Amino acid sequence: MIMRYSFIKNMIVAALLSVAQVTAAAEDVYIEESSNGKISYSVSSSVVTLTVSPATDYYITVDDIVVQKTIDGGSLNSQRASGPGVASKLPLTPVNVDDTGKGTYTFNLIEGYGAYVTATFTECMSMSPSIEISDWIYGDTPVLPIVNGNTSKGDVTYYYKNVRDKDYGSTVPVNVGEYHLFAVIAAKGHYKSAKTSEIPFSITKAPLTITAKSYTIRQGSALPTFEATYEGFKNNETSAVLTKQPAITTATSASEPGEYEITISGAEAQNYEISYVKGKLTIVDADALFVRAKSYTIKYGDELPTFEFTSEGATIEGTPTISCEATSASPVGTYPIVITKVSMAH
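^ that's the sequence the OP posted. Answer follows.
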């Protein structure tokens, strides 16, 4: 049995089998290598198995592999020099073949005849795909890129990078920033792999509104601990993601009764565009408080009583200070009882 490769234009003569009794011998095999693909064979009984491997960016179809029955005769050297006498065509069956034609094929030898196998490998076609994508807002579902010109329907892998970074990666970005994107389409069937050009896109800041709460206090009361509410956080985030917390300013506890703005500002966050809503501090008049000292009558020389008082209106905080300039030795007369240092509970 003889096997050889020969070239006719872009055609590869893959095998020449001269079989008297359906057997194979290694010394009868002659193969010429090709950069466009390879074919090897094995024989079991009367069945020949071809193993076909197109080179990168080449493909082959079953119709591109031609198996012809040869007329037996001639020496090995004369077969190589002049080629076999060709008779009728033999049927070829794909067994395990991918979309590039790579795989195994089988055909049956006919006793007393050889087989002449030719194969034409074709260069895969090129694609010129393009890619497009829209910007999106932080926290929204990332926009899926659109690839145009994927003629082969090959698998697509997307590659992203921040403009400040050097390397690309396949992880979809989530934080606010300026990015570049390209796509690679895997080789498939009769098409080569292809890469799109790089395009820019952005993830923009999400809106976040911070509102100062409003409060009402009585004049002279201590200011409350001011708080704010937040609207617009994404991904279950809280004010903890702020890189700088907001500052709140308003009137003081000594301010006159009236309405005062509670202003809020100064917050910072990587992924949010922040706006503010002012609150209102209302200071109202304190309740009136009337404190009266009780009156007493004593005899000359008696000890002074424990002075007491009555109050009306607001609640007194603590105990007032009550004093009288008279003593047990003071002359007979009338003396004022004075209340000082009165504090109201707020």
